[in-house]
Amino acid sequence: MNAKLALLKRLKVKLLAIVGVAFLALIVPGVWILLVTTSLSDEEMLATRIGNLAARTALAIDRHQAYGSPFLARDLLSPLAADRAFLCAELSRNGRTPVAALPSSQGCPTDLEGLEINIPVSTQQGWELRVLFTDAELHAQRHFEYMLGLSAIGVAFLAAMIAVAAGFTFLVERPLSRLLAAIRNSSESGELQTVNWRGRDEMGLVVRAYNAMVERERQRDQALVNTNEELRRSEADLNNLNRQLEDRVTDRTRELELAKKSAEFANFSKTRFLRAMSHELRTPLNAIIGFSDIMVQGTLGKLENDRYREFSGDIRDSGRHLLKIINELLDIARIEAGQDTLEEEIISVNVLMMECIRLVSPLAKERSITLHNSEIDPELVLDVDATKVKQVLLNLIGNAVKYTPNGGSVHVAVTLRPRHGDPRRGGIEFHIRDTGKGMSADQIPQAMAAFERLDNEITASQSGTGLGLPLAQMMIELHGGSLTLESEVGVGTTVSVWLPATRVGYMRSALNDIPPVQKAG
Amino acid sequence: MTKLHIIIFGLVLLASSLAAPSQASALTLAEKASIQASMQRHVDGQLVDGALLYLEQKTGDVQRLHPVTAHPMILTMGDHYVLCFDYRDDNGKNVPVDYYMARRDSAYVVFHTAVADRVLLKRLMADGKVARLR
Questions:
Q1: Rounded CA gap, A376 and A350, in Å?
Q2: Which of A140, A312, B21, B82 has the most CB atoms within 10 Å of its CB?
Q3: Which domains does chain A possess?
Q4: Lowest mean pLDDT among A168-172, A384-388, A458-462, A517-521
Q5: Domains and CATH numbers, chain B
Q6: Contacts of residue B44 in chain A, CB cutoff 8 Å?
Q7: Contacts with A18 from chain B: Cβ below 8 Å
């Protein structure tokens, strides 16, 4: 059969062999010693019986002085014949011919084999009783006892083997077979099976331990199944959420794309509109400004009426203001459309600043505002679009003068910011600080937004488009720089312009021993 | 221990146990019968009116001990032998008598009689001087 039954058979055979050898080693010597002892006792009993019988016979012969009476002597010898071990007996004197014998016809023949004892009957007269007896009964008894002993050993051995085999079968083989069957079925079917066995011995403990293990494995499997089920559900939920999220992202992306396209279209439309309108507006506006200036100048003859001359000046100034607005709108539109390009050139910082100061000075002087500017290295140059940077600085300084009350001051400083190993940090900074009324923190974003003007008495008294600061920021950012505004109410405002180090250089030693100014972009 | 060792061990035990009964006794059956007969003849020779007279040393009384039965067991004490005989006094009390016997030619003679002195025999057996005859 299979390996399992072969294993059981081997176990049983081994057990039977061990028990058999142990049984024989213990029982055979014991039975053998018992037989030997019994045999010895039987021998002693026979010796005692024959010895006593012969001695009492000798005593009787001596007591009756039957030496000269063969019949009496023979009668006295006759009780010996009652013993089954008796063979023959002779009464003789000093080894002569017996006077009496038993059996009387032949006495003890010389060829008769037997055990012999000689008992003195009368020591004075030399009478002696010779008795022969056989130990055949001992042999028979010993043979019987040995056969009985062997039979007992055989029966006991067989019974022991049967008992051991039956005990092994009931106590070990049956539970072991069930256990192995359960293990085999579990292995084949993949489903753990318990064993039905309620023994309280070690095999019962083994089976109970196995059942407990199976139960634990079942619980663990069930827990795993539950966990897997939860994981599957969670995965399904997650997939649903992912799908929903993807749908929402897709929808949102679509909405954003639509919004972006809409915004781009709106921005494009706005830019196109502004450009078209600016162009359409500037042509007649130039005519208005030109003709009104001719009228103010009186090129073709002075106007007689002073009111007319004043109105002509107002027309010219309004036209110029409108032209500025249109130009700024056009610049913003171009920058937002990404159509504005920088026309870079090398320009001295000192020259740039002196020009700006010079242009703003009349207004500052008119309003008794002191202009302070720091000393600038004359060889310090910028690689920028000079027109745009000048427009920015002029706008910022002009704003500082415009929004500073009379008698105030405006400080213009130029500083170089060290790189500290990072080219994005180094560069040049322009600080325009005024002593105006300043702005609160929530007003600063409003000032930086296009078409926004602060609503206060200073701004109300000054003309402005609300486009200057945002436009300046855009132009500076076009150069890779930044424009920041710090202000405190009652103290003043500081506008800082930073241009990166890549746009800063020196015009030293007739342009021979310095590296050329690095071009931006 | 291998299976072969177990089998060999069992066979050795079996052989040793089988060899034990073949040992020869110190006395043949005829000699045992002779020594029993000699004791019986000695006992018969000592009887006075069918009883063994015994002087009890402590009390000075002479007791009459009637022979009842001879013990089949023969004990050996070196070259000598010890046999026992049960007596019974007038009161019906059993009195053991041990006969210490020696071989003389082909016969046996009693050289010491121990009446009601089983202590002596037990002491000799305890000392290993007396043992059962095989």
A1: 6
A2: B82
A3: 3-168 (3.30.450), 228-340 (1.10.287), 342-511 (3.30.565.10)
A4: A517-521
A5: 25-132 (3.10.450)
A6: 55-56, 59
A7: 6
